[in-house]
Amino acid sequence: MRLRDVCMLAAVAALTAGAAQRPQPSTGTTAGLRGLSAVGESVVWASGTGGTFVRSVDGGATWQVGAVPGAESLDFRDVEAFGAETAYLLSIGRGESSRIYKTSDGGKNWTLQFKNADPDVFLDAMAFWDAEHGLVLGDPVRGRFLILATDDGGKTWAPAPPEGMPPALPGEAAFAASGTCIAASGARHVWFGTGGAAARVFRSTDRGRTWSVAETPVTSGAESAGIFSVAFRDERHGVAVGGDYRRPEAAEKNAAVTDDGGRTWRLLEKSRPAGYRSGVAWARGRGAQALIAVGTSGADYSMNGGADWVGVDRENSYSTSFGAAGAGWVSGPGGRVARIPVPPPR
C-alpha cells in the first residue's frame, strides 16, 4: 500500500471515529432501522420495526417520524427514496406480512401497492434503476428465487419469468438484514447475493428477465452465514460482504470483489472488514474507490476499492447508504441514524 493511501485511510478513520463520538440529533423513535436510503446532500429516509419510517430533508438536523397506517405490526427492512417526496417501503415476513408501500407526498400518505397472498413467499429487498423501474427479491418459491418487477412506478408488480432464473440450491436463501442483498446499476444490470447452503451472486443484464449465477468464496454452509449485502459502482466493479451473524467478530471469508460484472469473485484476504458485515456501499461523489461496510461489531472504510480496510468504530449498525452528492449515513438499533463525514476525492 502506498504512503498516500496509508495517510488517506488514517484520515478517514480519524474523521469517522470522531463523528461516531459526537451526539447525533434524535430521530424521535426507538425502532430498529434496517432500511436506509440517502438522496443528494440533505435528504435521507430510514425504515424499520413497528411500521416505522423516518425522513430528514435538512441533513439530519430535524426528523419526521411516522408509522404507516395499518402497518404498525410490520418490519420495513428496505426503503428506496427518490427525493424528499417519493419513497417505497418493503416489509418482510411470510404471507401477508410481505408488502410494498409508496408515498409521493413525503410520507403524509402511503399507498399499498402489493400485498402478498402466497404463504410460501418471503420478500427480502428492493433495487431500482429509477423511480419507475425496479425489482423486489424474494426467497426461493418452488425451487427458484422470486423476482417482482415494476415498470410503472409500482402501479403494478409482476413476477419475472421463472424459467429465466437458475434453480436455487437446497437450503439457499437471501438475507433481509439491510435491504441491500440486491443492487442495480446503469440502465439494465442487477445482482443479488445469497447465503445459507451457498454464497452465490446472481446476475442479470436485462432488468431481471434472465439470470446467470456465480459461486463466491464468501463463507456459507450455515443458515446464518453467506452474503448479506452487494454494491456496484458500475457494471463491472462490485463488492459482496457478509459472514456469519451468529459470529459477529469473525472476519474469515467475509468479503469478495469482482471486476468483471460478477462473473467471477475474488476473496479479500490481506485486508478485510473486521467481522460480520450486513451492509456495504460505495461512497459516491468522494472518489470511485471509496467503500464503507457496517455490521453489528462496527464499521470499516476502504479508500482503494476494498484492497485495504481500516476500522472506524464499534457501533452496532445495520445499513449504510450514500447520496449522489456523497453524503453518507448509517442506521441501526434504537432509532439511530448517523451521518458519516468523508474526505474529498483523492
Write a concise synopsis of the structure shown.
The chain is mostly beta strands and about 350 residues long. The protein has 1 helix and 29 strands. The chain has one domain (about 5-340): Methylamine Dehydrogenase, Chain H (7 Propeller), CATH 2.130.10.
List the helices and strands and how they pair.
Layout (H helix, E strand, L loop, with lengths): L2 H19 L11 E7 L3 E6 L3 E5 L7 E4 L8 E6 L5 E5 L7 E5 L7 E5 L7 E6 L5 E8 L2 E7 L7 E2 L12 E2 L8 E4 L3 E5 L1 E2 L3 E5 L7 E4 L9 E8 L5 E7 L10 E4 L7 E2 L11 E4 L8 E5 L2 E5 L7 E4 L5 E4 L5 E4 L5 E4 L6
Describe the structure.
The longest helix is centred in the first third of the chain and has 19 residues, at 3-21. The chain has a single domain (3-340), classed as 7 Propeller (Methylamine Dehydrogenase, Chain H), CATH 2.130.10. 5% of the residues lie in helices and 40% in strands. A hairpin with a 7-residue loop joins strand 11 (144-150) and strand 12. Mean pLDDT is 91; it is low at 1-11 and 13-23. It has one helix at 3-21, and strands at residues 33-39, 43-48, 52-56, 64-67, 76-81, 87-91, 99-103, 111-115, 123-128, 134-141, 144-150, 158-159, 172-173, 182-185, 189-193, 195-196, 200-204, 212-215, 225-232, 238-244, 255-258, 266-267, 279-282, 291-295, 298-302, 310-313, 319-322, 328-331, 337-340. The two termini are 15 Å apart. It is mainly β and 346 residues long.
